[in-house]
Every structure is written in structure tokens, then in C-alpha cells.
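In response to reviewer comment 3 from the previous cycle, which asked for concrete evidence that the modeling workflow produces usable outputs, we include below a single protein chain processed end to end. The sequence was submitted unchanged, and the resulting C-alpha cells are shown without manual editing.
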Amino acid sequence: MNWHNESITRKIGGLSTVLLSFILIVILYSIIKLLEIGQEMREVARVDIPLTEVLAEVEILQLEQHLLMEQVQLHQIKQNPQVNFEMLKSNFQSFSKKLDSELSRAISLISNGLESGQISQQINEHRQALEDIKAYQAQHKVFQQDAGKILLSSIDGDTELANWRSLEAQDSALDKFAITLLKRIETLTEDIAKNAEKHEREFLAINTALGVTAFFTGIYLTTYIISSFRKRVSSIHGKIESLQESITKREPLSIFDKAALEEPAGADELTDLANDINQVMSKYSEQMTNRYQLEDQLIQLATTDKLTGAFNRHKWDDCLVNELENAKRNGAISLLMFDVDFFKKVNDKYGHDVGDKVLIHLSELVKQHIRKADKLFRLGGEEFAIIVRDLDVIQASTMADKLRGVIEQTLEDGLPRFTVSFGVTQFLKDDDVDSVFKRVDQALYASKNAGRNTVTTL
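The workflow returned the following C-alpha cells.
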């Protein structure tokens, strides 16, 4: 008989036939504690950790759904014919259905766990979590209904824009709700795991006492069983502890190498549990990696102008402060500000859609003729700015004049010819954000007063 691979119950049963009768009570206590630990670990592995996995998936789906909303809004504003709007709506509906399916799965996990008795720790907290998930599902269904109506219309008008903003507010509320749910389940998992750890220490203490009491009659079997059991429990405990740390820090399980996730040898209950935890850890790490990728995309959306692809005003405010500090330490940094001459006439004569295309074309043209290190910003309307490093005001003025000439000579099919006016200045030693911005704005104003399509340096 391969004793090492036998179940824990049979190992303890075999040992009980060897040990003296006076330790029978201790053995029974050990079995009870072992079953209790197994129940707690199974609850973590089969209910709470899968529930955390499902809610993490819900949070990721919520982020993906938010990205799709941004893509739909971007398509509506730019009216880009290369974007398949119907496919965007279909993907949006698909994500919504998948999210609803995951919520139903979470509800089923808790409900089945409560009915079957798998959930034996913090039952009231699990019931409250169940009610919260149901409430979240109800809110999401309302969001699906509203989204289905709004996605069928354009967002150009004031009413449609207000409806879209209302939908975005619902989406943000669902994001916060999903994060709150995930944190609550993570806290439940941590508490149960800590309780299991406490019972584990108690159980190990009893087994140590058993080894001392039965030293002469069962030293070999006791030592062998405890050593093998402690190795398995220590491995499982290490995995759960690492998973707890990852959940707390909200980071992928990058600390695990291939050897740590290898399938453990043996055929007992702890081996099965270790295999289940390995699978959960792998899936969780993959989902966290995907989540960070989505967060990076959201950050890009938050700092980029949706129409032109240039950095937006929010990014401008941050960069201006940083570049001012950099100028004080590292030397020349210049600022170029420009806008389209008579842009209102372009909108009035050709329409706002053509005006938008002019701004898009202008942004693409400028990006082609500036250095990779230079940063282009859209400050609002037809007003743009460029921050350039390692160029003094004279060099920056030359750069602005070249851009002005390129724009003036460019002719694009379907777009009217247009010119731009530039204001140029350099970060000075005593400058702050307000002073340098005011000076470059004055330079741009001077170019407009000088007849436009010109460059003024201050």
C-alpha cells in the first residue's frame, strides 16, 4: 500500500490502531479539527476565491464596457467611416450580457454555498454580499435598457448629450459598486483564511502533543504523517498567504515561478485542494494583468483629446508644471501657441463637421513636422500649444515659422485652405505657470493683430 498517497482519514485511522487507547480522545479531536480546517479551506477555494475571481472578471468587464462606450462616443463625434459602429454596439451588448452572466454566476455561488452548507463562516456577511450583488445586477439591467435606447441615436444634440452623460454617470456608479463588492469579498476571504490559519496552528499543536505522548509506540508513523501533512499544509498556506498579499496589493501573482505552480504529487484531499488553488492563482494573475492593460488604456483616454488625438487640457496642466521645473534645472525649454485663423468663418461657411476635420488634419500635420520629444496639446476649440525642449526662443521661432509655412501651403481634398497664427516664448528663470502662459498668449494675440498667418516672439 502506498501510504503517502492515501487519504488523510485513512492515515489517521491507521495510526489510531497503533496508538494506545488513552490517546483516543486526542485522535478524535484531531480528526474534528482536520475536518474543520478542510471545510474552511474548501470554503475559501470553492466559494470565496471563485467568487473573488468572478467579481474581478465583473470589474474587468465593467472597464471593457467603459472603453467601448468611449469608442462609441468617439465614433459619434468624429463620424469616422472606418469604424464599424454596428460592431461597436454589438460588442457593447455582448459585454453587457457577459457581465450579467458573471453576476448570475456569483449569485449562484453564494446561494448554493449557503444552501449546501459549504459556507459556514461569516454567514450573515455572505448573505449581505448576496443582496448587494443582486442590487448591482438590478442596476446593471437598468443601465442596459438605457444604453440600448441611447446607442441607437446620435449624441450631437443637447438632449442626446445629456442622456449620454447620464449614461456615463450610471456607468461610473456601476464601476464604484463593482470595486466595493470586490473589496468586500476580498475582506471575507482574508478573514476566513486567517481563521483557518488559527485552526491550523491549534491542530499542529495537538499533533505535536500526540507525538510526545505516543513516542514509544507510534514515533515513526506519527513523525511520518505529521511531516507529510505539514508539508502539504505549509504549501497550501503559503499559496493562500501569497494570494492574500496579491489581493491586498492588487497586483498580479508575478512572484510565482513555474515550479511553484507545478501539480503536487499525491492523491489525497490536500493535493486536490492544492491543485484547485494553483488553477485559481493562475487565472487570477492573468486577470490582474489584463486589468492593468485596460487601466493603461483608460489613462490614455483620460489624457488625450478625443477629436484630434493630441494631449488634452488636463495633460497640459500637469506637463506645464513639470516642464517649468525641468527648465529651471536643465536649460532651454520653449512654448509655442497657435490657433486657426478665422476658424469661426470655416464653421459658418462649411459646417462644424468640416471644422472638426480641419482640426484633425492640422493636428496630424503638426505631428508629422515636430520631433518625437515635442508634445502637442489641444487647449480648447481651435487653440493648440507645443512644448519643445532644448530650443531657445529664436530656434523655437524658426520652428514655428516652418510649421506656419507648411500649413499655409498644404492643400487637402475636401478641406478649405487655412492658415494659423503663432505666439512663441521661452521659459525664463523667474517664470511661473501663469506668467509664461500669459506671455505666450500675448504673443499669439500680437500675431492676430499683425494680420494673422504670422509668428510673434516675446
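Confidence is low (pLDDT under 50) at residues 255-259. We consider this sufficient to address the reviewer's concern, and the full set will be provided in the supplementary archive.
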